[in-house]
Design brief:
Helix content is 42%, strand content 0%. By secondary structure, it is an all-alpha fold.
């Protein structure tokens, strides 16, 4: 290798180092951005995700309006392993007779005055649910979690 070759090589190497250093500086996060992102992540950790499916909620509302749970029960039979996520659902006076809601997550749901005669709520998570004046004749509540439930 000649002196000229080594000088060219050295210049190319320095040029690469400068360009990589510039890239680093451009990508280098600013302290205020880190603090902001950190606080966002911490607030997300404190607020657990709500267990709610808009699709399931709308299907139950449709069934309630028709006063026929056939669509829901058919869907449940076709999707037995699908989690029923209706935390905080607002269904006062719902007509859900004989609905298959086994294993459903209905924490904090509002079902005041709902017609749940013959509904299967086996092993459902009903913590904090409001079932005031609900019609529960023949409903299966075996193994349902009813802590702080309003019956």
């Amino acid at each position: 290798m000649t002196d000229t070759d080594s000088q060219i090589y050295f210049q190319e190497l320095q040029s690469k180092r400068r360009s990589s250093k510039k890239q680093y500086e451009v990508l280098k996060p600013y302290p205020e951005n880190i603090a902001e992102k950190d606080s966002q992540l911490k607030s997300q950790e404190r607020q657990p995700k709500k267990r709610f499916s808009q699709e399931q909620y709308e299907m139950l509302k449709r069934c309630s309006e028709k006063k026929d749970t056939t669509e829901w029960n058919k869907w449940r039979a076709e999707n037995p392993h699908e989690n029923i996520l209706l935390e905080g659902a607002f269904l006062p006076g719902a007509e859900l007779r004989s609905a298959d809601l086994k294993y459903a997550h209905l924490e904090g749901a509002i079902l005041i005055g709902a017609h749940l005669e013959g509904t299967n709520l086996f092993d459902a998570y009903l913590e904090g649910i409001n079932l005031g004046r609900a019609h529960l004749v023949g409903a299966n509540l075996k193994h349902a979690y009813l802590r702080r439930a309003d019956l």
